[in-house]
Amino acid sequence: MTFTQSSKLLMLCGFLSLSASAAEVNSNIKDVDYCTVCHGSELVGNPSTGAPRLSGMDPWYAKRQLENFQQGLRGFHPEDLSGNEMRGAVEHLPPKLVDDALELIANSQSAIHPTYTADQASAGKQVYASCATCHGADAKGNEQLGAPSLLVQSDWYLARQLAYFRDGKRGAEGSDSYAVSMKAAAQALTDDQIEQLVSYLSQLQLASATKGK
Amino acid sequence: MYGSSRALGLIADTGEPKAIHLRPAEKGKNKVVILGGGLAGLSVAYQLQQAGYHCTILEASHRLGGRNLTLRHGDFIDELGNPNFCQFDRDPNLYFNAGPARIPGHHRRLLNYCKEFSVPLQLKANSNRLAYIHDSNHFGGKPVRIGEYIADSRGFLSELVFKSVNQGDFSEEFSEEDWQKLMAYSSIFGDLNEGKYQGSGRSGSKKDRMLEHVVAKDPLKFADILTSKVGMMAALTPENYDWGEPLMEPVGGMDGVVEGFKRNINAKVKLHAQVSAIQVNEDSVDIQYRYKGKQENIQADYCFNNIPAHFMPGISNNFSAHYMNALASFKRGNLYKIAFQMKKRFWEEEGIYGGISFTDQSASQLWYPSHDINSEKGIMLGSYSWDDANNEMFASMTLQQRADEAARCGELIHPGYTSHIEAFASVPWTRMNHMMGCGAHMPADIWDEKFEVLQAAEGRHFMIGDQISHHAGWQEGAFASAEHALGVFNDMVLKA
Question: Contact A37/B330, CB-based, under 8 Å?
Fold first, then answer.
């Protein structure tokens, strides 16, 4: 049975309500330490929990994604398990804690560890040419266009999200216009091209990290 | 996936606990830090204190015990995004074992701790012939009693054996007398009548069997019996070595085991202490952790790590690449349970006292309590599945949706089910704060290699927990991992 089917049935047989309100139970959350449970210390990201790196993320992008999760624009596709989990975790987060979380992201510091080898980077550079329009030739992103930096996100997560955009597991919610554009942009990508792209981005990240030192 | 591979498998004997004789701690080398207050961590603390070590337990959540979680009135259920409180009545008999819930007699390590700490145990029926099989595509979609399925399946199978022997289909390896014995055995095994199965009183009688002769129920269709996966599950899971009757549970809730440890350990316990970094040095281990909004440090001579392995890639460390690679290979298990407080023990009116009904619906299993029979109310388990898709579906629902869906499934077995529900509590382990999973596993082709890496020490750091055993999701696995790690530790100390 699909989620939608069962949801329909559920509406027919609601029988009992929890007496504790969402606000009441949320008062039990004291701080945003629980972000680090999945995202790791210093929000370094964790492929085992499926949680992306958040340290280094542009504040405007972090804010938009948190709002997307809260407003039902992200994390609904049943095959996007981590997205579902994230939506569940922050859906009812009070505004104060959203601010605290954004502050935690802004203040966190972690090293990025690119794992893709350079083998396919030159092929990736070719594929990246069309991405550069929005994300910039240096992949630092463009706030005006709503395109995030690709230098701050772990390669395993970039690869997964590219496939999600392509397969309609992200950007399917319609009213997130940025995600819809990205879904269209990723439409024709093959698995090999994703591999190549991320390989190229890994190299950009390495170069950027070296320059930073 | 987690249980089903085991459901029909044969599992070797659980090992006898090794007597742990640790070399007494030396001054200046007696500080141990234990990361995570789950059962493996608690047992390490208990064993080390006997040898004179001073242990500190850093636990990220608000309580000790890990997934040994018994929920009662007012208990906090720390689910990410869905923090809530258990709404059961204030009554010590109304409890829900959201994690481990049954103990077989061969889990010697756990049972020894229960004895040592005077944790009272009671029998818990795990299988029950009067509980139901509900398979929407078999048996007319109506619930049938498990005993009926068992009697009929044995009957039909025995008839096949009987006929084959009678027709001389088997090889000549056995003597005529052997064949006669096999026919006699199959007749008794399947309750045959002159080699034919025509139903059996073992499946129940159509008439009151006290005052009238037994009139066997009409047999189920053999094709249904063979193709009903739910039926097979109901009939054959008790064949699993861990689920063979009789099973046990602590009186008053599984957390009696945790309370036993709490009464008997003198380790310093810090709750709400979330580990952020582990550094293993030549002669010490440094741990950084978040505590009350601040970063704190502790240095110890040794470290036992009970943290779910899937968190380790997010915790800074200086582990070797192959050790870290092994830790990062774990996949999170997604076990999920929901329990209902029923205002009436309606199942007892149907002759069901303990045991499990099985359904092909998302709820998969309904567990009836074995304790406090004939009391007014009861807590019954409304869903427990080994299907990834079911578990993920329930986890992504709201609390209310989970209860509604489980109630819908229960209603198909027990009409009126929903009307008895007074309260519910659900625990999707993939979303429980500081847990994010239950039933850790990794691809079978790499498991042996990684397991060996993780059973060894990484310098002064020892990985423990049910995850470092062949029995994830069982307390005995956690204790076995601790026992093994203490053995490695002791060898290290003796060599030093």
Answer: no
Give the chain B residue nearest A19 (alpha carbons).
Answer: B87
- Chain B, 34 to 63: residues with Cβ < 8 Å from chain A are 60
Q: How much is the pLDDT for A78?
A: 86
Q: Report the distance separating Cα B122 and Cα B253, nearest Å.
A: 10
Q: Is residue A136 helix, strand or coil? A: coil
User: Could you tell me which residues are beta bridge partners of residue B299?
Assistant: B286
Dump pLDDT digits (tens) for B379-409: 999 999 999 999 999 999 999 999 999 999 9
Mutate which of B359, B401, B431 to test chain A, going by most A C-beta atoms within 10 A?
A: B401
Give the sign of the dihedral formed by CA B462, CA B483, CA B97, CA B101: positive
> What is the DSSP code string of B104-159?
ETT-HHHHHHHHHTT--EEEE----TTSEEE-TTSGGGS-EEHHHHHHHHHHHHHH
A51 shares contact with chain B (CB less than 8 Å): yes
A102 Cα to chain B: minimum distance (Å): 16
Strands B285-291, B294-300: pairing kind: antiparallel
- Find where tokens 């009903």 sit: B228
What is the rounded distance in angstroms from the CA atom of residue B305 to the CA atom of residue B309?
9
Residue B171 pLDDT = 63
CA distance B481 to chain A (A): 22
Q: What is the pLDDT of residue B177?
A: 86
pLDDT digits (tens, 9 = 90+) for A54-71: 999 999 999 999 999 999
pTM of this prediction? 0.91
Number of inter-chain CB pairs under 8 A, A vs B? 134
pLDDT at B175: 80
Query: Hey, of A18, A54, A93, which one would you mutate to test binding to chain B, going by the most B CBs within 10 A of its CB?
Result: A18
Report d(CA A157, CA A150) in Å as an integer.
11
| ipTM over cut 0.85 | yes
The pLDDT assigned to B164 comes to 85
